[in-house]
Each structure stands twice: as C-alpha cells, then as structure tokens.
C-alpha cells in the first residue's frame, strides 16, 4: 500500500506589488528605526537627552526590558508590512509549524494591517507638536533631538495604510473588481 501525499493547493499569485508600495513597505522599517535606536541608547545607560534627575527612571531593569521589548515590537511590526508586498504575504513560509505552505487569506492580512494603520496614525498624530509640550525631565538639546527622532513615526500609519490598500486591490476577488 503506497502512501500518497495530498498535493498542496495551487496558489495563483496576485499581480506584483507596484514599485511605490514596495518602497513604502521598506520605508516603514526605517521610520521606526530612529526612535528604536534612541531607546536602545537609554538601555545602554546613556541619558540620551534626559537630565540626570529625569534619567533615573530608566535605570531600572523593568524599564530596560520594556524599552528593548518596545523597540523590538516596533521593528517587528514595521517589518511585517513588507509581507504585504512579498510572496510570504500570499503563502505562509513552509518552515512555520502547522500553517506553513498554506495560502494567506487576503482579509486575514488586510483587517489587522488596516486596524494597525488606524491605530498607528492616531497614536503618533501628536508627534509634530512635540515641542509645544513641556519636557521638564529633558535637557533643551535633548528635547530637540528626541523630538526629531520621533517625527518619522508620523509616517508609519499612513505608509501602512497605503501598502495595505495596494495589497487589498491586488488580492480582491475578481467578482468584485
């Protein structure tokens, strides 16, 4: 008796992502990078713009773990945007246990990505006004530098929204086009 394996379902690839969407997806990882690197500098023990008194709260192990975790999660979240323009956004890579090799249902990518785009846009909407808020625990130059490092985050939500819309358009059902 021979054992035949069930063939993997044939996945018809969507149209390639437009060049602007690929660029926008890669740009998301870069807009998150300055603030993530700044937090890592804090973890390494440098005040990075904080006054001596303001920096004391960042010297605890809990604060360091939180800042490293936040930096890694931000970069990972930004990196997932690239999946919306790459083949692994259409078929789960085979090395992933249980679901590897399966087709990604478009709405399983679109809904979380669109929700993330809205959340990120709202979260970072006030960053352009950074310098209008008091930052008594920072030095004057630190306030300028940190505000500048956080400004790119304003682009994260809109970039993710644009790439998500591109993904949706390329993967929508032919019946609805």
Question: How large is the share of residues in beta strands?
Answer: under 5%
Task: Count up the domains.
Answer: 1
The amount of helix comes to 40-55%
Structural class: mainly alpha
Q: How many beta strands in the DSSP annotation? A: 0
N-to-C span: 47 Å
Give the topology string: H per helix, E per strand.
Answer: HHHHHH
The biggest sheet, with number of strands, parallel, antiparallel or mixed sense and barrel status, is: none
**Cα gyration radius (Å):** 21 Å
Shape: elongated
Q: Helix count, per DSSP?
A: 6
What is the assembly state of the chains in this entry? Answer: single chain
Low-confidence stretches: none
Mean of residue pLDDT values: 89
Secondary structure topology:
Blueprint: H1 19-43, H2 52-55, H3 61-80, H4 106-123, H5 140-150, H6 156-171
Helix pairs in contact: 1-3, 1-6, 4-6
Keywords: Membrane, Transmembrane, Transmembrane helix
Transmembrane segments: 20-45, 65-85, 106-129, 149-168
Task: Describe what this molecule looks like in 3D.
This protein has helices at 19-43, 52-55, 61-80, 106-123, 140-150, 156-171. It has one domain (19-169). With 177 residues, the chain is an all-alpha fold. The chain contains 6 helices and no strands. The N and C termini lie far apart (47 Å). It is elongated and about 60 Å long. Helix 1 runs antiparallel to helix 3 and helix 1 packs antiparallel against helix 6. The longest helix is centred in the N-terminal third of the chain and has 25 residues, at 19-43. The mean pLDDT is 89.
Question: Summarize this, please?
Answer:
The protein has helices at 19-43, 52-55, 61-80, 106-123, 140-150, 156-171.
């Amino acid at each position: 008796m021979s054992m035949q394996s069930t063939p993997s379902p044939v996945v018809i690839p969507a149209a390639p992502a437009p060049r602007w969407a690929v660029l926008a997806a890669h740009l998301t990882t870069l807009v998150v990078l300055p603030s993530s690197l700044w937090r890592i500098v804090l973890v390494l023990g440098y005040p990075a713009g904080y006054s001596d008194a303001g920096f004391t709260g960042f010297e605890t192990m809990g604060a360091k773990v939180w800042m490293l975790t936040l930096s890694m999660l931000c970069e990972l979240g930004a990196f997932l945007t690239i999946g919306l323009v790459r083949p692994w956004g259409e078929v789960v890579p085979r090395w992933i246990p249980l679901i590897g090799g399966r087709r990604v249902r478009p709405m399983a990518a679109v809904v979380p990505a669109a929700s993330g785009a809205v959340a990120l846009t709202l979260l970072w909407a006030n960053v352009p006004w950074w310098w209008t808020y008091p930052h008594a625990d920072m030095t004057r130059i630190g306030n300028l530098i940190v505000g500048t490092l956080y400004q790119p985050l304003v682009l994260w939500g809109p970039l993710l929204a644009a790439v998500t819309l591109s993904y949706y358009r390329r993967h929508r059902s032919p019946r609805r086009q």
